Amino acid sequence: MEERNLMNELGRRLAKGDEDAFTQIVERFSRQVFAVCFRILRDTEEAKDMVQEVFTRVYVKRKSFKGHSSVYTWIYRIAVNLCLSQIKRTRVQTVPLDDVAYRLASRTSLPDTKSQMLKDVIAKLIEALPPKQRAVFILRFYERLSFKEIAEVTGTSIGAAKANYHFAVEHLRRLAQGGEDFEV
Amino acid sequence: MKSNGHPGDEKLIDYVDGTITKDDRKAIVEHLESCERCSAYVQSLQQIFRLLSHDSVPQVEESFFTYLPQRILKRSQASASRRSWRFAFAPVVAVASVVVLLLVVFRFPAQPEFDTIDLMMSEMSMVDLIDVVSDEDGYDVLLYEAGQALEPADEYLMDETPYDLIEALSPAEGEQLVIEIEKEMKSQTSGAS
C-alpha cells in the first residue's frame, strides 16, 4: 500500500511535468510493465519495445494525467491498450489446442517447472484466449489487481471485468481438458 | 447457492481465486464435501491455476531497465525539439519560399526551347545567340542555322550543303566555325557602315 501511495505522489508530480518523478516511476514500474507486456504478447523483444513505447507515451502525455485514477492503473491502461492494438495489427492465429490438451493429458503430474514444454503449454493456453480476456486474466491472476482497478484499466464496468475474468478462467480450464481450435 | 443447489461456476472460480466472503466460503466448503460435480470442477480449476502460476517472465539484461528513463527522456526531448524547431521556423521558411519563387518567376523567365531558333535568329544578333546557346546540342543547331543564314556569302560552303559540312565537324571545329562566322558578320557589318 505504501508503494502505491508513493506511486500516486509521483503521479501528482509527474502531472506537473517533474522529470525526476518520471524517472522514479520508470525505475519502480518498468519491470512490472514488461511482465504484463510479455504475458500479453508472449515475445521478449516485442515486450521490450512495448515498454519503451509505453513510457514514452507516459512522458509525452504526462500533463494530461489528471489523477482521477492512480498513476499505475493509468500506466497499465496505456500498456494494455498498446499491446491489444499490437495483437490486432499483427496477429491472427489459430492455436492447435488438441496439442495442448494431449500434452497435459499425457502426464499424470505437473511437468517440470523449468522445462521448455511447460513454457510452451502455458504460452499456448494464454495465447488461445481472446485478447481482452487475456489482458483481464493477466491483470487479475498475475498482477493481482482488484476488479475495480481492472475496470479502470480496461475502460469497462466492474461487472464486465469480472465476467471477462470468469470467461477466461473457464476458457482456460476447457482448453486444458479437451481441444477445439480457437481463433485468436 | 443457486436454485439447483449448486453454487454456480462463477462462485466456484471466486472460491479458488480467493475473492469470496467468509460466509460464502463456508457454504461452498460444505457443499463440496457432498457434491462430486462441483468438487471435480474445483479440482480442475486448481490444476489450471497451479499450472499457470509457473509462468515465468524471461530475464532481461538489467541495463535495459537502468537506462530506460534516460533513453526515453533523450528520445522525447529530441523529438520535442525537432517539433519546436519546425514551429519556430515554419513562418520564416514559408516567407523565404515565396520570395525565392517570386525571384525565379520575375528575374529568370523561362528560356525558349531551341526549336524556336528560327524565331530567335530573326530577332537576335549572332553574338547574342552564341551567349544564349552554350551546350553542345545548341551549338549543332546554331551552326546549322548560321550556315543556312550565311550560305550565299560564304566561300567555304560552295561544294557541300551547310548541313553536310556541319555534320562532318567536331564540336571544337564547329566552335571555330562559329567564331569565323561571327568575324565574317562583323566585317560585313563594318564594311556596310
Describe the 3D structure.
Chain A has helices spanning about 1-15, 20-40, 45-60, 70-90, 95-105, 115-125, 130-140, 145-155, 160-175, and strands spanning about 95, 180-184. A two-stranded antiparallel sheet of chain A has the order 1-2. With about 180 residues, chain A is mainly α. Chain A contains nine helices and two strands. Chain A folds into two domains: about 1-90, Rna Polymerase Sigma Factor, Chain: A; about 95-185, Arc Repressor Mutant, subunit A (Orthogonal Bundle). In chain A, helix 3 crosses helix 4. Chain A is globular, with a radius of gyration of 18 Å. Chain A starts with a helix and ends with a strand. Chain B starts with 8 loop residues before the first helix and ends with a helix. Chain B is about 75% helix and about 0% strand. Chain B folds into three domains: about 10-50, no CATH class; about 65-105; about 115-185, no CATH class. In chain B, helix 1 (about 10-15) crosses helix 3, helix 8 packs antiparallel against helix 9 (about 160-170) and helix 8 packs across helix 10. Mean pLDDT of chain B is about 75; it is low at about 115 and about 150-160. Chain B is an all-alpha fold. Chain B has helices at about 10-15, 20-35, 35-50, 60-65, 70-105, 115-125, 125-130, 135-150, 160-170, 170-190. Chain B is rod-shaped and about 135 Å long. Chain B contains ten helices and no strands.
